[in-house]
C-alpha cells in the first residue's frame, strides 16, 4: 500500500490533536461514566433475569473494561460452577486472567478449556502466553497446530509464536528466521516486523531496526507503532527532526500513544 498522506496534512492533524488533548481526556472520563452506567443497568437486568448467561457475559465484559478483574472472574466462576464443561467460559476466563497479568491461572484456565475442546485458536492463544513466559511447551503446541495443515494463516501464527519464544530466551538468530517465515506466510503480519525490529533495536543496530520499521509502514501506512519505532530509531541516531516527525505521525494515527506524547515534550 502506498503512503498517501502528505506531511502537511499530518502536521495539521497533529496540531489539531494537540489542541484536543483536553477533549480526549474528557472523552475518556465520558467513556468511564458510560461504562459505569452500563454496569448498573446490567446488574438490574441480571437481578430480573438471573439465568441469562448472555447478560452475565456482558457484565463480565463491562467489569473487564473497568479493570475490575476480580469481580469479573467471580462472575465467570459462578457461570462455570453451573456449566463446568463449557469451553467458551473457561477460555474467556483465561483471556481475562491473562489481561489481569495472572499468567499462572490464565494458563490453567486455557488448559481446562482445551481439554474440553482443543481448538486451534485456543491452542495458539495458550502457546503465545507460554512463549512470552519462556515456556518451551509453546513450541510443542505450535508444532501440533502446524501438523493440522490449516493453511498459511495458521502457519504464520505458529512461526510468529515460536519466534517470540526464541526471542525471549535470547536465541535471536532462530527468532529472526521464524519471523521471516511468518512474514513469508503473511506479508502483512505487523507484529512480526515489530519483533524483528526490536531485536536489532535492543542490539543498538538502529539503522537496521529502522529499515524493518520503515518496511512495516510501507506495508501498512496506518500502523502507528511502525512510525513510533521509526522515531525511536531516529532519536537514538540523534536525528531529532526525523524523530519528531515520526512521533507526530504515530500520534495522528493513535492519539493514545502516551510514550509518543512524552517523547515530543522531551524533544520540542
TrEMBL record:
<keyword id="KW-0677">Repeat</keyword>
<keyword id="KW-0802">TPR repeat</keyword>
<dbReference type="InterPro" id="IPR051685">
    <property type="entry name" value="Ycf3/AcsC/BcsC/TPR_MFPF"/>
</dbReference>
<dbReference type="InterPro" id="IPR011990">
    <property type="entry name" value="TPR-like_helical_dom_sf"/>
</dbReference>
<dbReference type="Pfam" id="PF13174">
    <property type="entry name" value="TPR_6"/>
</dbReference>
<protein>
    <submittedName>
        <fullName>Tetratricopeptide repeat protein</fullName>
    </submittedName>
</protein>
<dbReference type="Pfam" id="PF13432">
    <property type="entry name" value="TPR_16"/>
</dbReference>
<dbReference type="InterPro" id="IPR019734">
    <property type="entry name" value="TPR_rpt"/>
</dbReference>
Amino acid at each position: 500500500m502506498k503512503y498517501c498522506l502528505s506531511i502537511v496534512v499530518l502536521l495539521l492533524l497533529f496540531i489539531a490533536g494537540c489542541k484536543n488533548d483536553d477533549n480526549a481526556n474528557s472523552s475518556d472520563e465520558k467513556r468511564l461514566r458510560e461504562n459505569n452506567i452500563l454496569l448498573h443497568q446490567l446488574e438490574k437486568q441480571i437481578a430480573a433475569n438471573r439465568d441469562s448467561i448472555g447478560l452475565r457475559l456482558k457484565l463480565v465484559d463491562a467489569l473487564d473494561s473497568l479493570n475490575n478483574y476480580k469481580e469479573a472472574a467471580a462472575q465467570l466462576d459462578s457461570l462455570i460452577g453451573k456449566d463446568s464443561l463449557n469451553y467458551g467460559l473457561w477460555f474467556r476466563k483465561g483471556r481475562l486472567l491473562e489481561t489481569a497479568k495472572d499468567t499462572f491461572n490464565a494458563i490453567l484456565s486455557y488448559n481446562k478449556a482445551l481439554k474440553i475442546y482443543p481448538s486451534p485458536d485456543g491452542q495458539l492463544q495458550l502457546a503465545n502466553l507460554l512463549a512470552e513466559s519462556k515456556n518451551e511447551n509453546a513450541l510443542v503446541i505450535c508444532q501440533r497446530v502446524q501438523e493440522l495443515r490449516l493453511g498459511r494463516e495458521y502457519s504464520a501464527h505458529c512461526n510468529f509464536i515460536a519466534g517470540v519464544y526464541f526471542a525471549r530466551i535470547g536465541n535471536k538468530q532462530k527468532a529472526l528466521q521464524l519471523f521471516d517465515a511468518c512474514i513469508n506466510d503473511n506479508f502483512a503480519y505487523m507484529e512480526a516486523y515489530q519483533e524483528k525490529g526490536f531485536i536489532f533495536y535492543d542490539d543498538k543496530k538502529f539503522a537496521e531496526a529502522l529499515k524493518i520499521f520503515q518496511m512495516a509502514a510501507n506495508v501498512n501506512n496506518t500502523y502507528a507503532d511502525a512510525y513510533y519505532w521509526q522515531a525511536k530509531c531516529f532519536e537514538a541516531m540523534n536525528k531529532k527532526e526525523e524523530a519528531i516527525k515520526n512521533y507526530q505521525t504515530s500520534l495522528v494515527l493513535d492519539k493514545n500513544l502516551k510514550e509518543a506524547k512524552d517523547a515530543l515534550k522531551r524533544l520540542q
